[in-house]
């Protein structure tokens, strides 16, 4: 299988050249294959958020190579990075980050809007995606009218909008109770199995991580362990 | 990103903070509103005044005697002091007036330029009594040229004939209002009737040969009362019934021939009168055209408009700073949203456009409200002053474009701040 994510010796330093220079990631190399469901676990301060920012190209590494779906991200300028984020990555945040005062449908449309898709196509696709996450009946609801689980489902639909190469989920169940958290995890499994989506899950919960195909543990900015998960329990 | 989406987004954002949006717009509303109101009043005034003056004949040359010491008046509007000699402390005496000799000589000298000279001699206020009914009149002796520029709508009978003027016949043209008061509105009965006019206890008998339609003078919104005096015209020579001796004038109107440069004629006429008045310590001759007065008045009004517009412009800049302030607050408040948008693939330019459009929409809505209030205020003020209101379309368009430019100018900095946000910091912002 092709690798979708290929990180080579990624180093990230902050406050470069200043007395308080800080190296968070000490040369991380990592590959994620097409269709894999990978989890990255680690305690807080381990550098997993920084790693997530690297994978999500929200930030650039100090050194090292990153090839995402065949594109060398290091060579892209700011505007191209926006395009890559738009086309290749679907973000799911712990705090949902739906755009306030904008209904569910419009939120799902947003990545397609930035991609320049025409209105009718956009609406059609957004409706399909809301159906996929079983939120069709809430399409016209504003985020503040939705429960946490519903918001996260809308956020997942939004992450799927431009059919990205990967879905990058940062503690997606962190703000949910265990029951709704379960529903969200089931949705990820469904997207992984049925829609063949590559999913990178960042979590501090070993229990959730164990459901995934592969668990990557990081601590103090290095990968300390890599093992196969048990897959979804039925 | 599509501009329409941005506009919808901006409107939604404003609707979610109505009070704040309104307060932000206030500066723009006041600025645009006052500019539009002032322009509306100014334009209406200019238009109305210049139409009035044009109808009096813009190319005609007016000649009047003017007190030498009324420097203040001369400075304000040159020549506008004609007929207002009561403002001066020195009433004109016999040697100050324009005489028939001067006029005859003048018309001979400039016969290529002068088409007619309109002379009007104000006999005074009079009273007419007939069959126990009475009417007040202002009696004017007029020359043949008078009706060329002061057109009357004749309702019955006819105008003075050449013979009437030459022989000074005791005939008169009166207003329909007088006919109303004395002949119960029966024009046919009035024509041919002889009326006895009493001016300062001097009696003149005149036969009515024509009735004209009285144009009610609306000045400052007030109409004259029903019993007010209307003009009664008699041939200039017929004024001998009330006056003895030679007629003298403080004012005359020269109707120029077609193609005559009236501004040049003004100079010639001023020069012509120079020898007569050079030794007169109290009075001098002033000649002017209505056209020059119109342009002077227009200039004055546009100077006032400009001055007030500058003040309003300052209000707009202050308003713009208010918009900038609120946009900065808005950007900070929506830091997380900006981060999310960036994570979803929004380019810096998309974020910048979004916030600039929002600032523009604030200013545009403010501008539209300002225009509406400004037109309302301007129309109201014009009507109170008694002029027909005429809102300036170009003024409105320029104001709206200007207010949008303010949006762009003052929205750029906050929008750029939003665009340059680091997505990670923005996403992490609490």
Kindly describe this structure.
The complex is a heterodimer of chains A (234) and B (430). By secondary structure, chain A is an alpha/beta fold. Chain A has helices at 48-55, 78-88, 104-114, 119-132, 148-159, 178-194, 206-209, and strands at 3-14, 22-33, 37-41, 63-68, 71-72, 89-92, 166-170, 198-203, 214-219, 222-228. Chain A has one domain (34-49, 75-228): P-loop containing nucleotide triphosphate hydrolases (Rossmann fold). Chain A is built from 7 helices and 10 strands. In chain A, helix 3 (104-114) packs across helix 4 (119-132) and helix 4 crosses helix 5 (148-159). Chain A is globular and about 50 Å long. Chain B is an alpha+beta fold and 430 residues long. Chain B folds into 2 domains: 3-52 and 296-428, no CATH class; 119-247, no CATH class. The two termini of chain B are 27 Å apart. At the A-B interface, helix 2 and helix 3 of A face helix 1, helix 11, helix 12 and helix 14 of B.
Number of H/I helices of chain A = 7
**Strand portion of chain A:** 25-35%
Radius of gyration of chain B, whole Å: 33 Å
What composes the largest sheet of chain B?
Answer: 10 strands, mixed
Give the strand line-up of the largest sheet of chain A: 6-7-8-3-9-10
Number of DSSP strands of chain B?
A: 12
Structural class by sheet pairing and helices of chain B: alpha+beta
Helix/strand layout:
The complex is a heterodimer of chains A (234) and B (430).
Chain A: E1 3-14, E2 22-33, E3 37-41, H1 48-55, E4 63-68, E5 71-72, H2 78-88, E6 89-92, H3 104-114, H4 119-132, H5 148-159, E7 166-170, H6 178-194, E8 198-203, H7 206-209, E9 214-219, E10 222-228
Chain B: H1 3-15, H2 18-55, E1 61-67, H3 71-76, E2 98-99, H4 100-109, E3 114-130, E4 133-142, H5 146-149, E5 154-157, H6 162-167, E6 171-175, H7 176-183, H8 187-190, E7 194-199, E8 202-212, E9 230-235, E10 248-249, E11 251-256, H9 262-277, E12 283-289, H10 290-333, H11 335-343, H12 348-385, H13 393-419, H14 423-428
Parallel strand pairs in B: 4-9, 6-8
Antiparallel strand pairs in B: 1-11, 1-12, 2-10, 3-4, 3-7, 3-11, 5-8, 7-8
Helix pairs in contact in B: 1-12, 2-10, 2-12, 2-13, 10-12, 10-13, 12-13
């Amino acid at each position: 299988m092709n690798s979708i994510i290929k990180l080579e010796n990624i180093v990230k330093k902050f406050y470069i050249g200043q007395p308080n220079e800080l190296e968070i990631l000490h040369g991380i190399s990592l590959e994620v294959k097409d269709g894999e469901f990978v989890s990255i676990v680690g305690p807080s301060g381990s550098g997993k958020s920084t790693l997530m920012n690297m994978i999500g190209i929200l930030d650039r590494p100090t050194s090292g190579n990153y090839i995402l779906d065949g594109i060398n991200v290091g060579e892209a300028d700011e505007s191209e990075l926006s395009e890559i984020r738009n086309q290749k990555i679907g973000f799911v945040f712990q705090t949902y980050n739906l755009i306030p005062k904008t209904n569910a449908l419009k939120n799902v449309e947003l990545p397609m809007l930035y991609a320049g898709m025409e209105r009718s196509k956009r609406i059609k696709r957004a409706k399909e995606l809301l159906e996929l996450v079983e939120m069709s009946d809430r399409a016209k609801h504003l985020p503040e009218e939705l429960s946490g689980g519903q918001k996260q489902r809308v956020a997942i639909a939004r992450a799927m909008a431009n059919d990205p190469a990967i879905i990058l989920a940062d503690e997606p169940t962190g703000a949910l109770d265990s029951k709704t958290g379960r529903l969200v995890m089931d949705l990820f499994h469904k997207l992984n199995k049925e829609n063949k989506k590559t999913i990178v899950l960042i979590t501090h919960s070993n229990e959730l991580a164990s459901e995934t195909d592969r668990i990557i543990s990081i601590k103090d900015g290095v990968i300390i362990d890599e093992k196969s998960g048990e897959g979804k329990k039925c | 990103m599509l501009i329409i989406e941005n506009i919808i987004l901006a409107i939604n954002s404003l609707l979610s903070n109505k009070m704040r949006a309104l307060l932000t717009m206030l500066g723009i509303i006041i600025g645009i509103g006052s500019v539009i109101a002032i322009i509306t009043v100014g334009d209406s005034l200019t238009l109305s005044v210049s139409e009035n003056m044009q109808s009096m004949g813009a190319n005609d040359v007016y000649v009047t005697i003017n007190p030498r010491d009324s420097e203040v008046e001369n400075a304000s509007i040159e020549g506008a002091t004609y007929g207002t000699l009561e403002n001066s402390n020195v009433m004109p005496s016999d040697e100050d007036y324009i005489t028939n000799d001067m006029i005859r000589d003048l018309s001979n000298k400039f016969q290529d330029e002068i088409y007619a000279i309109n002379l009007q001699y104000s006999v005074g206020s009079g009273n007419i009594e007939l069959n126990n009914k009475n009417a007040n009149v202002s009696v004017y002796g007029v020359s043949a040229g008078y009706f060329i520029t002061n057109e009357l709508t004749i309702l019955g009978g006819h105008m003075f004939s050449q013979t009437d003027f030459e022989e000074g016949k005791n005939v008169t043209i009166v207003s329909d209002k007088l006919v109303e008061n004395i002949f119960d509105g029966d024009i046919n009965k009035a024509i041919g009737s002889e009326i006895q006019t009493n001016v300062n206890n001097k009696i003149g008998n005149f036969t009515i040969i024509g009735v004209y339609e009285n144009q009610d003078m609306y000045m400052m919104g007030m109409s004259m009362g029903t019993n007010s005096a209307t003009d009664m015209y008699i041939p200039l020579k017929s004024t001998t019934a009330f006056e003895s001796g030679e007629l003298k004038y403080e004012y005359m109107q020269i109707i120029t021939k077609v193609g005559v440069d009236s501004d040049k004629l003004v100079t010639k006429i001023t020069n012509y009168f120079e020898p007569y008045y050079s030794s007169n310590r109290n009075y001098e001759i002033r000649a002017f055209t209505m056209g020059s007065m119109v342009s002077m008045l227009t200039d004055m009004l546009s100077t006032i408009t400009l001055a007030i517009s500058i003040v309003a412009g300052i209000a707009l800049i202050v308003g713009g700073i208010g918009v900038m302030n609120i946009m900065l607050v808005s950007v900070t408040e929506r830091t997380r949203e900006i981060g999310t948008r960036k994570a979803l693939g929004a380019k810096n330019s998309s974020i910048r456009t979004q916030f600039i459009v929002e600032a523009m929409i604030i200013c545009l809505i403010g501008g539209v409200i300002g225009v509406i209030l400004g037109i309302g205020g301007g129309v109201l003020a014009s009507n109170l002053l008694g002029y027909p209101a005429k809102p300036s379309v170009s003024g409105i368009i320029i104001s709206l474009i200007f207010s949008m430019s303010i949006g762009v100018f003052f929205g750029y900095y906050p929008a750029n701040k939003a665009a340059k946000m680091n997505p990670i910091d923005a996403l992490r912002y609490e």
